[in-house]
Amino acid sequence: MAKLQALFGGTFDPIHYGHLKPVEILANQIGLSRVIIMPNNVPPHRPQPEATSEQRKLMVELAIADKPLFVLDERELRRDTPSFTADTLQEWRAEQGADKPLAFIIGQDSLLTFPSWHRYETILEHVHLLVTRRPGYPLTMQQEEHQDWLDRHLTSNIEDLHNQPAGKIFLAETPWFDVSATLIRERLERGESCDEMMPEPVLNYIMQQGLYHHGA
Ligand code: ATP
């Protein structure tokens, strides 16, 4: 079987166990050879991250330092302007050649909004979609047309993900991790503990930088 690699995009403001744990479990379940974490360059019309690009990058580096499964890709952060996921994945496919199996990881909440992404249908031409579970979100799409799109691409066969280069959607049975970056930022702002929510070096860095805490 060809080696299956996956890209995992997000704002990571900050990176937390809701990102890392489901993906580590998914990697074991389906045999991912590596997961490339790619922090986004956030478009100007969207709410801006609280941490700078450099800080978001550093927190990812701290989080994955002892986890060989993960590598960091800085390409989006290095760009002056944000790029659409569809374009980034097209570029990645061009770099990797036509035959390698490639995947893009998203949480269940992102699957629900996925059809609103720029040229979303083209994404499955380049990669498979691997979806991790997230508490509080349905597993069915709101619009029938989008549910049809999902049903057309759905597979529960892990071999499909390895034997075909792209085009399948896999709903992984990963455990729920009820944590979000928003919740973490809110808790830190209130001076509440986030000990169990992210790797210790990331939390230490946040404290040392005084991030997400605006003081009284
Ligand atoms: P925010 O609260 O700031 O919106 P977030 O915690 O949702 O942030 P992002 O960086 O926006 O994190 O998410 C990157 C990816 O990780 C998305 O595909 C999202 O669905 C997924 N993800 C984030 N948290 C979880 C979680 N607890 N369980 C499963 N997937 C998650």
Automatic annotation (TrEMBL):
<keyword id="KW-0808">Transferase</keyword>
<feature type="domain" description="Cytidyltransferase-like">
    <location>
        <begin position="7"/>
        <end position="187"/>
    </location>
</feature>
<keyword id="KW-0520">NAD</keyword>
<dbReference type="InterPro" id="IPR004821">
    <property type="entry name" value="Cyt_trans-like"/>
</dbReference>
<protein>
    <recommendedName>
        <fullName>Probable nicotinate-nucleotide adenylyltransferase</fullName>
        <ecNumber>2.7.7.18</ecNumber>
    </recommendedName>
</protein>
<keyword id="KW-0547">Nucleotide-binding</keyword>
<keyword id="KW-0067">ATP-binding</keyword>
<comment type="similarity">
    <text>Belongs to the NadD family.</text>
</comment>
<keyword id="KW-0662">Pyridine nucleotide biosynthesis</keyword>
<dbReference type="GO" id="GO:0004515">
    <property type="term" value="F:nicotinate-nucleotide adenylyltransferase activity"/>
</dbReference>
<comment type="function">
    <text>Catalyzes the reversible adenylation of nicotinate mononucleotide (NaMN) to nicotinic acid adenine dinucleotide (NaAD).</text>
</comment>
<dbReference type="InterPro" id="IPR014729">
    <property type="entry name" value="Rossmann-like_a/b/a_fold"/>
</dbReference>
<dbReference type="GO" id="GO:0005524">
    <property type="term" value="F:ATP binding"/>
</dbReference>
<comment type="pathway">
    <text>Cofactor biosynthesis; NAD(+) biosynthesis; deamido-NAD(+) from nicotinate D-ribonucleotide: step 1/1.</text>
</comment>
<dbReference type="InterPro" id="IPR005248">
    <property type="entry name" value="NadD/NMNAT"/>
</dbReference>
<dbReference type="GO" id="GO:0009435">
    <property type="term" value="P:NAD+ biosynthetic process"/>
</dbReference>
<dbReference type="Pfam" id="PF01467">
    <property type="entry name" value="CTP_transf_like"/>
</dbReference>
<keyword id="KW-0548">Nucleotidyltransferase</keyword>
